[in-house]
Design goal:
Elements: E1 4-10, H1 14-30, E2 35-40, E3 54-57, H2 64-69, E4 73-77, H3 85-88, H4 94-101, H5 117-127, E5 133-137, H6 157-167, E6 172-176, E7 188-190, H7 196-200, E8 206-212, H8 215-222, E9 228-230, H9 236-239, E10 245-247, H10 283-291
Parallel strand pairs: 1-2, 1-4, 2-3, 5-6, 5-8, 6-7, 8-9, 9-10
């Protein structure tokens, strides 16, 4: 009997690949009789998902055409959801826009992360601390990002320091950031962990989470860990989750001469910044949210 395949190709960062686990589940739910083959930039994310039959890293796909394309019954799922009308107009969450793009019946599939036994054991040794852990992600995006603090996504330094100081007596503060960015005094700084799953496993050992629009808030959703998430340039209605407390400021309008399909460039063009100071967020509101996690 001829095998039938659904082939799902994902490009982009860690957060996008975590979101893609929901799309992969949706593909499998719509085509349960087909083997689901995933090709992604973070294959480790998909390896433990039972509805995924085979995983490849982009650029490392030996004999792929002969195995899955040539003379087979296949469906190809490879399109860019960030270019859909519903995402650009912010009328639908990116996951739903992605599924609609593939003409799939979307049934509220949500991101998933599954850790195997070896990963669980390794994570215990990696993340055990004497005090409960509070994770603060201050910076996101790729290491190649030109600015050290992207105003559209990254946490204002004074906010991060004030929140960390408030909880430092009772919690071990772990700051997740990129290299060459500001560091919170007294915090343990995490900038690069080779294994994506070991990096994300930090959340499983955390008691409090203060995050930004980046990979950890997607992972927290996948692990059903309520978090406090700050938003600036993007909208939680299209990239966030109702599980979290999503806190967004009111930004003044300015001229945006180089904005095209999105209001702000996520890399944070400095001349597009409408912010005059760091009084974007109410610290008491943030503390109240964190206390209620």
């Amino acid at each position: 009997m001829e095998k039938k395949y659904s082939i799902f190709h994902i490009e982009g960062g860690l957060g996008k690949n975590i979101m893609a686990t929901a799309v992969a589940q949706c593909i499998k739910n719509n085509y349960p009789d087909r083997e689901l083959i995933v090709v992604g930039s973070y294959p480790e994310i998909f390896l433990n998902l039972k509805f995924v039959d085979r995983v490849y890293r982009i650029g490392n796909t030996p004999y792929f055409y002969q195995n899955y394309i040539e003379n087979t019954d296949n469906l190809i799922f490879r399109s860019e959801p960030y270019f859909t009308t519903s995402y650009i107009n912010q009328t639908s969450h990116l996951i739903k826009s992605w599924c609609d793009l593939f003409q799939l019946e979307y049934n509220e599939e949500t991101p998933q992360l599954i850790f195997n036994r070896a990963q669980e054991s390794e994570a215990i040794g990696m993340w055990y601390r004497d005090k409960p852990i509070m994770v603060i992600q201050t910076n996101g995006g790729p290491p190649s990002q030109k600015v050290t603090n992207a105003w559209t996504r990254d946490m204002p330094p004074l906010i991060a320091q004030e929140i960390a100081q408030h909880y430092s007596q009772d919690y071990h503060i772990i700051q997740v950031t990129r290299d060459n960015t500001f560091t919170i005094p007294g915090a343990e700084v995490v900038t690069n962990i080779e294994s994506s799953m070991m990096f994300l496993s930090l959340l499983k050992f955390s008691k409090k989470r203060f995050l930004i629009d980046s990979s950890l808030q997607h992972a927290a959703q996948a692990l059903n860990l309520k978090s406090t998430v700050l938003w600036i340039g993007n909208s939680p209605s299209v990239l966030g989750y109702d599980l979290h407390d999503n806190i967004s400021p009111q930004l003044p309008s300015i001229m945006l001469p180089d904005s095209y399909m999105g209001k702000y460039d996520i890399g944070g063009r400095t001349y597009e910044c409408p912010i005059q100071d760091e009084k974007l967020f109410n610290v008491e509101e943030i503390i109240s949210s964190i206390d209620n996690q």
